[in-house]
Q: What sequence folds into this?
């Protein structure tokens, strides 16, 4: 059983970026404690912020205080890109990324800013065409990153962003066909965003590389539970029905200028779209990438249907208690899944159980796309039973009486057929039950 626990110590270091962003460091020697071979300086700090994000780059900032004479405690030179900011919590490496800027505050302190590993993708270009024909999604990502490596004449850090070498993630059942035109000189980050939008690609940088698999941080019955005993504030649940539609059409380039219906009536009925007033029914038109036909068009339309046939529901700014973690010693519902261990399992893509009382905020239809290449590859439920972490924000302040830390997390509800009707204990001896979801 693991929990995020309380912060006993934060150590911030500046490390040699050429060392810690090398493949050998990541694949062979990346540990949970400070590696002195890479450390250039230990950084004194008064405040720090770090986080983790899904499908975008996270940022960390560290404030370096002054001594009692007003002299900055930053006597060493700072070097963008050549140095990396690394944060350790209770001896565990929780964040790392290249140093990208610093400034003097109005109070005379130095504030240092860094971005995670994905920052290298914000300047990475592939200047030759990359053609993917019938390839799987993660293979397309790998091919593009390989082209960026050739253009930049660099192996690291792009090698540790490559899903083939890190972990291939969830492979696609149907191959995709796509061409990335080198003459457009597009940044790698833009390409990843495009693949995320079109093909439901998931990616997130952690202290141990870029992760592409949503199931990697699914812990089955040992998943963390969110309830009154594990969070410090009331959940802020936002439900937005303004873009809900009951009909969906997709435009195909071979349809002679007309519309080809991708979504059938049965699919709409499963979601219970009849609950919405017909007077506000809309026709939503999507435009997939150029020359999208057949299976590729169906993929795009299926993803769009999940986005538009149910309300957009978000759970914002939940402040997590130190007790957040597993409530079971079991590995999970499936032996393939290990149990929740520590704060480094608190990643985007992590699935948590929802243990708050059912009310108008939780009684809302939820749909989740699990296989973007299948018409029926999504799950539906009438209320929130599980949520997926999309952003983590951590702030810490050093005080005379110790450390003060706030951990906030934002979630999106997901419909997940893997959650059955199981009773889970909570700390005070009470219990709560999660009802099963249904797979269409």
A:
């Amino acid at each position: 059983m693991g929990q995020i626990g309380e912060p006993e110590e934060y150590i911030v270091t500046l490390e040699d970026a050429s060392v810690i962003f090398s493949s050998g460091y990541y694949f062979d020697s990346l540990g949970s404690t400070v590696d002195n071979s890479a450390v250039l300086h230990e950084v004194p700090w008064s405040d720090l912020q770090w986080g983790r994000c899904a499908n975008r780059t996270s940022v960390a900032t560290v404030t370096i205080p002054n001594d009692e004479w007003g002299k900055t405690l930053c006597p060493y030179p700072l070097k963008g890109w050549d140095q990396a900011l690394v944060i350790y919590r209770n001896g565990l490496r929780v964040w790392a990324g290249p140093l990208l800027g610093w400034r003097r505050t109005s109070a005379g302190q130095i504030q240092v800013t860094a971005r995670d590993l994905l920052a290298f993708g914000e300047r990475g270009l592939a200047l030759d065409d990359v053609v993917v024909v019938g390839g799987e999604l993660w293979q397309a990502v790998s091919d593009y990153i390989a082209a960026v490596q050739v253009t930049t004449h660099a192996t690291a850090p792009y090698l540790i962003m490559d899903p083939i070498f890190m972990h291939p993630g969830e492979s696609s059942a149907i191959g995709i066909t796509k061409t990335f035109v080198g003459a457009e000189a597009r940044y790698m980050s833009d390409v990843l965003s495009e693949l995320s939008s079109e093909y439901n690609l998931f990616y997130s940088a952690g202290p141990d590389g870029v992760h592409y698999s949503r199931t990697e941080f699914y812990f089955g019955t040992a998943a963390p539970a969110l309830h009154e005993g594990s969070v410090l504030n009331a959940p802020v649940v936002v439900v937005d029905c303004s873009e809900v539609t009951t009909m969906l059409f997709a435009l195909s380039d071979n349809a002679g200028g007309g519309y080809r219906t991708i979504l059938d009536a049965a699919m709409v009925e499963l979601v219970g779209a009849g609950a919405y007033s017909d007077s506000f029914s809309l026709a939503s038109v999507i435009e997939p990438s150029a020359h999208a036909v057949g299976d590729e068009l169906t993929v795009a339309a299926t993803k769009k249907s999940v986005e538009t046939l149910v309300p957009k529901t978000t759970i914002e700014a939940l402040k997590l208690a130190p007790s957040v973690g597993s409530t079971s010693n079991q590995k999970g519902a499936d032996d393939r899944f290990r149990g929740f261990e520590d704060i480094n399992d608190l990643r985007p893509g992590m699935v948590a159980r929802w243990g708050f009382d059912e009310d108008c905020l939780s009684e809302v239809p939820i749909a989740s796309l699990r296989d973007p290449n299948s018409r029926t590859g999504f799950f539906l439920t009438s209320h929130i039973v599980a949520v997926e972490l999309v952003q983590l924000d951590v702030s810490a302040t050093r005080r005379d009486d110790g450390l003060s830390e706030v951990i906030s997390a934002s979630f999106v509800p997901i419909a997940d057929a893997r959650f059955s009707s199981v009773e889970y204990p909570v700390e005070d001896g009470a219990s709560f039950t999660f009802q099963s979801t249904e797979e269409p």
Summary: Residues 242-307 form one domain. The first helix runs from residue 17 to 20.
